[in-house]
Recover the amino acids of this structure.
């Protein structure tokens, strides 16, 4: 038997690469391994991704493959360079081919990238594109829910469209004309993604672009087969997960019947990290931490803050909504620390200012984050408006995240009105300008005791507590299934 090309992926997503390979390279024998038992990779720590990937590589090396294709963006971002430097066979990843294709396609140098948490956090797509063209503007979005939809074979459902539409909302107004599907699972959602971003946006399938590079490399290394040299090419498909489900998805996607998917157990499997009975509050504010400690300590959880982890890098708040920022902080830190993390993002939204300052509340008047300057600018912007024309609301979004799990998201508002002059000595931020109509006083005049009972944060915490038991139950079920 002729030596095959080996393909690895965290699950079924890499089948999109395999499909293109079967089309472009009909004379080649191929072996595919999907690690569905431990999918998704994108929410896991880097070292865990590395170890899982190396286990798959070892399995394929024992099959005497002649070339390795890492059909997974997350694994490519983590271990491609290491494998290229250590293996004696050619190794191809999926990131560079997709990046180059996007640069070639775009007409306005504005490119969107959809990927897993790990791929987006690595910044490997922006770096790869900027190495070729520094004028490219990249808008990258982590889409952790997409992989779960595909792995559950739910790509064509109404729920899938709702998730895609909500996840891609940050692309609105960016004027991107090209979007890279930066995870090999995502082409299985291609029709839905195209519907959401619009027909004028070109979608780049990083996996399909990769096969062209594979073909060229086979010829260059004199490894390609012909109908004469390999008249009966073989195809073997393996999974670490449920073989019947993998088989169903493979037959549907590859448009082949009679496939026999074999389940395998990889050597030296890495056990998932057990979660500690602790919650990290993504803040350095001792008062805020004390507030949450009163909620979670009776439930058996110790509460820590970012002060306990000085080595952690600050998570940049690049989101355009409160939820995006809170998610970014909670999920990034949860994966880094392998524990439960609670993050919040809150701010003031003024109706007459089309929702401003919103997510920029703390730096409304500049990056110096001055309460006095922010208040002065707000009063200036609302000059001449009276009564209900000065309506506003505070918003608080809380996100509770755990590694490899769906996050719990709650959001609440507190309606009010902007005063014409500051009043009161309590609180911080915009408290001296925010009037609660029922009381006819500002938060700063009411004092912290009353504020902590009626504020946006108080309402969000109440929602969080009401959904806590259900979320932790689902979290425990997820841990048991890993």
């Amino acid at each position: 038997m002729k030596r095959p090309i080996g393909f690895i992926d965290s699950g079924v997503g890499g089948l999109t690469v395999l499909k293109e390979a079967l089309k472009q390279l009909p004379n080649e024998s191929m072996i595919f391994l999907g690690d569905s038992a431990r999918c998704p990779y994108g929410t896991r720590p880097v070292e865990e991704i590395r170890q899982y990937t190396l286990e798959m590589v070892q399995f394929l090396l024992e099959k005497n493959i002649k070339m390795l294709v890492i059909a997974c963006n997350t694994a490519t971002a983590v271990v491609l360079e290491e494998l290229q430097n250590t293996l004696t066979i050619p190794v191809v990843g999926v990131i560079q081919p997709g990046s180059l294709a996007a640069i070639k396609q775009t007409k306005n140098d504005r490119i969107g990238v959809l990927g897993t948490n790990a791929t987006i956090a690595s910044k490997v797509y922006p770096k790869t594109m900027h190495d070729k063209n520094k004028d490219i503007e990249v808008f990258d979005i982590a889409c952790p829910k997409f992989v779960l939809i595909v792995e559950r074979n739910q790509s064509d459902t109404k729920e899938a469209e709702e998730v895609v539409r909500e996840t891609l909302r940050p692309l609105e107004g960016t004027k991107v004309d090209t979007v890279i599907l930066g995870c090999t699972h995502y082409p299985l959602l291609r029709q839905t993604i195209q519907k959401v971003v619009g027909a004028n946006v070109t979608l780049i399938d990083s996996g399909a672009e990769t096969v062209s590079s594979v073909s060229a490399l086979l010829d260059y290394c004199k490894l390609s087969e012909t109908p004469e040299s390999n008249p009966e090419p073989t195809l073997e498909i393996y999974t670490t997960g449920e073989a019947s489900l993998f088989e169903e998805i493979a037959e549907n996607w590859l448009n082949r019947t009679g496939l026999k998917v074999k389940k395998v157990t990889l050597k030296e499997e890495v056990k998932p990290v057990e979660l500690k009975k602790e919650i990290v509050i993504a803040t350095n504010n001792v008062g805020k931490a004390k507030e949450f400690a009163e909620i979670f300590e009776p439930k058996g959880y110790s509460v820590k803050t970012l002060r306990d982890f000085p080595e952690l890098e600050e998570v940049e708040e690049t989101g355009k909504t409160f939820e995006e920022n809170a998610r970014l902080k909670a999920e990034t830190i949860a994966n880094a620390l392998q524990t439960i993390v609670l993050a919040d993002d809150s701010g003031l939204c003024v109706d007459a200012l089309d929702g401003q300052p919103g997510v920029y509340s703390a730096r409304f008047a500049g990056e110096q984050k001055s309460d006095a300057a922010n208040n002065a600018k707000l009063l200036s912007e609302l000059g001449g408006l009276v009564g209900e024309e000065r309506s506003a609301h505070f918003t608080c979004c809380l996100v509770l995240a755990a590694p490899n799990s769906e996050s719990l998201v709650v959001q609440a508002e507190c309606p009010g009105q902007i005063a014409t002059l500051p009043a009161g000595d309590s609180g911080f931020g915009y408290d001296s300008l925010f009037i609660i109509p029922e009381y006819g006083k500002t938060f700063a005049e009411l004092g912290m005791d009353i504020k902590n009972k009626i504020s946006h944060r108080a309402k969000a915490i109440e929602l969080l507590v009401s959904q806590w038991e259900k979320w932790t139950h689902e979290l425990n079920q997820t841990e048991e299934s890993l």
